[in-house]
Hints:
single chain, 260 residues, mainly alpha, 4-stranded antiparallel sheet, 4 strands, elongated
Amino acid sequence: xxxxxxxSLTPSDSVAEEPVxxxxxxxxxxxxxxDIFEMRLLPGDQVTETEVAAYFKVSRTPVREALQRLQxxxxxxxxxxxxxxVVPMDFKRFEDLYExxxxxxxxxxxxxxxxxxxxxxxxxxxxALKADWCVPVEQRxxxxxxxxxxxxxxxxxxxxxxxxxEMANAFDRLTDRIRIVRRLDFVYGDCVGSTYDxxxxxxxxxxxxAGDEAVRLITDHIAGSHAEVNQITLHRLHSAxxxxxxxxxxxxxxxxxxxx
Length: 260
């Protein structure tokens, strides 16, 4: 993903850098996606292909491709004549996704502890996770965005290590859809330290093949993260809405002050 803009810059100060010519749709997609994740683009904000293209100094074709990809991600929705809107924040949808996440990860941890079945588990992948998570406090990451990426990799590895590639692919897609809220816990919350502790405990129980305890830990871990994310998301949305009158991206056509 494209590097985040300098947070000290307001949207009006920020200037779109020259796009990478080799992949214009990917460039625009990454920039728009980051603006959504950082809540510079808010639920209900409307843009047009023409204005986005002018801002990023590209034609409308790569912009349309980028927006269609964001629509597939569940982040944008098109309406008429090249107009697009950031989808409203749907907490019921995230509730459903977190429920699915719990089902998949509980199954994965159960399989890893059992070590049997039609798919051969790869405990080497689980062992490798210890190099990232079972470390002294002074070696832990402190940057929220980096920790969020490492956290995603941890949970994806748990699922991938079961040997069920279709389940791993489905979990990767699920991870992508909850990233917009999940990363808030790392960037704006205070969960990095507890995440290290909880991940290390989960790995220890998997290594000991203690299935019941491993399931309890992963269930509590996901539930705690979901509850915290809901609180942070509401706070961030209201903070962003309060500042929207003075800060807006140049390519935003209409900022809709809808109820979240």
